[in-house]
Design brief:
Layout lengths: L1 H8 L1 H19 L7 H19 L3 E2 L5 E2 L5 H10 L1 H18 L6 H7 L1 H6 L10 H23 L10 H26 L2 H7 L1
Antiparallel strand pairs: 1-2
Keywords: Membrane, Transmembrane, Transmembrane helix
Protein name: Thiamine transporter
GO molecular function: thiamine transmembrane transporter activity
């Protein structure tokens, strides 16, 4: 009972526990993953491509977030080709690399919800290999959820006067995630993605 009372008084503690639990649950799911040399090489190349695309954004939002030329697509391709576990693992690695290259740290709990967890969520599209557009939408929706939680919990002070933190977070994160998703969907349609998957 004392534990529940403490959690009610300290929502940040609850968020921290939830974030750590989710990362551990994701990583435990990937512990039996074994990649061949070819698969590991493909993952490395696609993660490098993701980094390059993130460093060359089409538009950088004033308070964080970027619209890229399909920056999420390589991680999604990993998930489609090798399954959600490998996609989640690739997202985790990219989240850490992104943290090293573009850190914006307010506190440790915020780091969990802005870096590893959102990009790990992109690996969830691997659960929908036969419905890639649905899978991409699901992965980005869960990523959106993590960024939304971070926005409400840690960036409420950025909200304009009279606007609730929830509405601010919804709009601020949607202004770059939705266009980024649309670009990924269009590129998936235009590029020979099925051939890439078969080559992988």
């Amino acid at each position: 009972m004392k534990l529940f009372a403490m959690l009610e008084k300290s929502p940040m503690t609850l968020l921290a526990l939830a974030g750590v639990f989710l990362i551990l649950a994701f990583l435990l799911r990937t512990r039996k993953v074994k990649l061949t040399t070819h698969q590991a090489t493909c993952c490395g190349l696609l993660l490098a491509l993701t980094l390059v695309l993130s460093l060359l954004p089409l538009y950088r939002m004033p308070y964080g977030g970027t619209i890229t030329l399909g920056g999420m697509l390589p991680i999604m391709l990993i998930a489609f080709a090798y399954g959600p576990e490998v996609g989640i693992m690739a997202g985790f690695v990219y989240g850490l690399l992104n943290l090293l290259l573009n850190p914006y740290i307010l506190q440790p709990v915020q780091v969990l919800f802005d870096y590893p967890l959102p990009f790990m969520a992109l690996g969830l599209c691997g659960f929908f290999p036969r419905h890639p557009y649905l899978g991409m939408a699901v992965g980005v929706a869960v990523r959106y959820l993590f960024h939304f939680i971070s926005g409400v919990a840690f960036f409420a002070s950025y909200a304009p006067a009279g606007m609730s933190p929830a509405v601010y977070s919804l709009v601020a994160n949607g202004t770059y995630l939705i266009p980024d998703l649309v670009i990924c969907l269009v590129l998936y349609r235009l590029l020979p993605m099925e051939r890439f998957r078969q080559m992988m």
